[in-house]
Amino acid sequence: MAERHRNPTIIDVAERAGVSKSVVSRVVSGRGSVGEETRRRVLDAAQDLGYVVNAVARAMVAHRTYTVGVFVRDAATPFYGHLLTALQERAASHGYRVVTATGSGRFAVADEHRALETLVMLRVEALIVCSGILPAAQIVPFAERLPTVVAGRPETHGSITSVFCDEEEGGAALADHVVDLGHRNVAVITVPVSNSVTMGPRTAAMARRLRERGARVLEVVGPHREMAGGWATEILRHPEITAVMAPSDRHAVAFLEQLQLRNVAVPQDLSVTGYDGIGDLVSPLIGLTHWRQPIELIGERAVDTLVRLLDGEQPPDHHQALSGSLVVGRTTAPPTR
Amino acid sequence: MAERHRNPTIIDVAERAGVSKSVVSRVVSGRGSVGEETRRRVLDAAQDLGYVVNAVARAMVAHRTYTVGVFVRDAATPFYGHLLTALQERAASHGYRVVTATGSGRFAVADEHRALETLVMLRVEALIVCSGILPAAQIVPFAERLPTVVAGRPETHGSITSVFCDEEEGGAALADHVVDLGHRNVAVITVPVSNSVTMGPRTAAMARRLRERGARVLEVVGPHREMAGGWATEILRHPEITAVMAPSDRHAVAFLEQLQLRNVAVPQDLSVTGYDGIGDLVSPLIGLTHWRQPIELIGERAVDTLVRLLDGEQPPDHHQALSGSLVVGRTTAPPTR
DNA sequence: TTGTAGGCGTTATCAC
DNA sequence: GTGATAACGCCTACAA
């Protein structure tokens, strides 16, 4: 539990090389000029001692950590896992490290707040928040303190910068696809905005567009995948329904599992759509028709925007809504009745 | 790019509260005794200024960071994503933060080495390495420097502590299942150990056990999922084969996709097995027969072991091989020919 | 209980 | 080109 065997410092290296610690500092930091011969001796000494720069001490005096903090709600979810990877890569290409604070999906808002505070303690230079439930009000205090970008969710709060995929566009486009196929009675598995600021607006957009196009809509409230059995029971009670729109690929697959159990054929008896297009569920084995979010792009834009903020520039857009794309699979087809 | 607006320090708080910085330090760190009235004033002042402890400075003097470094090869894969989450949670429960260094799966060994060095620069107190390709020789120098645990891969190097799922057991058990069903001609999609220290031994164990049980084995070398088309072509050239064992769930699904394209029925024409049991591919919709790795347990054990090492204790086992479990789905059945 | 005086490992600013 | 020296923000004896 106690401090480990002390790491060698520039002072140790200096002694061994027979120079002052200033010289060592210049050599290892690459600033200032040092004689070629001296540089060699220092490098050798450092090598012998296994010296590695202490980023903590460096941050102390430089007032910089070259670190951005990323808060992800649940890295075990494909969506956030991919987003995290994209963020990490992009940040590295800008010379920034990433420190991650993760919830497990079961964290309360209070815990999420504490996680953000931890990142501030570590003196990350900026924050990227990826959570579909943390309310904007909780984020604002942090955004006022250091550059902050909300990624992966449609956040339009005035004092928060954000990068996300346009949920309205996606939901509407998917609804268009369903109507274009000829469906007139459609069920939408909706999610309250209070449960998710992504799936909420998304499913709302689906229902709205369906109605605009003249379809009749049955809204089934289904925030959690575990409730798939319930959706199936309710939806199958309405034989006029020929298509079902789910709030995410995972919800869609959970529903497909239920249909399989009940021997309902897809897409013959029922068309089904998903949403996200991330991870293993895009397998052609399932062939799920869905809306694909450009997750890598979200990650890249989020980091690029953050770097602009760090450089004191104004980002191009306060709220960047990126476009996704429709992926037509084998789970949707014209209605047979 | 420059330093942000300076954060308030204990000195600022001290001035505002009209006390010395020592008092503030005692209050915020919770050590030493402070008068109740004084404590209140300090807390108020801290609140007003928005003071947040500087973990960097604290680490500087304490020679401790309460941080463990986790290197994961690719957080976007379900296996590593889940492992990362499990590690993070467990570490938090022990009072440690986690700093993650991630590759994208396309990193060269040299880059992975550099990533580990970055973690050392940050003065993490211990290391958890999760990578199926980084050779032990690269890890040893770090393990000599600070407590290190390799998680999720069968690492039996003498000077490295490790926690993993027993690949021999899993491969053999899965092979037993196949033979027990009556299959006598089986294809195994093998992976060279040089490509993966998990899938390599695992597939080798499958082939070995199959032969021990009297089955004839066709080994198809297939490190990458993109090669699934090739496997299918080769395997279907051997009509006597009635079962195929893949190195992972993802490989199995890639293969299933190919079979679907070629109208080969599973499990009627061919039985197929996977391996891992992590993430969305376990969906009953696919019903893949596979070996399930206890990933949460691996994460917990890895952290617990690390904490023991940090406390100067000897871990119970140098190499902990955990047991997985067989999950029988609908992709395996007795052979029909 | 409270204040004073180092010192942690680095970088930066000066003289030399 | 090189070497003292002063911070950086915090903790910790030790003294008052």
General shape of chain A = elongated
**Most extensive interface:** A-B, 62 and 62 residues
Give the SSE order of chain A as H and E letters: HHHHEHEHEHEEHEHEHEHEEHEE
User: What is the average per-residue confidence, as pLDDT of chain A, rounded to a whole number?
Assistant: 93
**Would you state the CATH class of the largest domain in chain A?**
Alpha Beta
The radius of gyration over CA of chain A amounts to 26 Å
- Helix count, DSSP H or I runs of 4 or more residues of chain A: 12
Instruction: Give the assembly state of these chains.
Output: homodimer
**CATH-defined fold name of the largest domain in chain A:** Rossmann fold
Percent in strands of chain A: 15-25%
Number of domains of chain A: 3
Number of strands of chain A: 12
Question: What percent of residues of chain A adopt helix (DSSP H or I)?
Answer: 40-55%
Structural class of chain A: alpha/beta
The CATH homologous superfamily of the largest domain in chain A: Response regulator
The biggest beta sheet of chain A reads:
6 strands, parallel
For the largest beta sheet of chain A, what order do the strands appear in spatially?
A: 2-1-3-4-5-11
Ends apart, CA distance between termini of chain A = 69 Å
CATH architecture of the largest domain in chain A: 3-Layer(aba) Sandwich
- Unreliable stretches of chain A, pLDDT < 50, 5 or more residues? none
Fill in the keyword field for this structure.
DNA-binding, homodimer, Rossmann fold, alpha/beta, six-stranded parallel β-sheet, four-stranded parallel β-sheet, 12 strands, 434 Repressor (Amino-terminal Domain), 3 domains
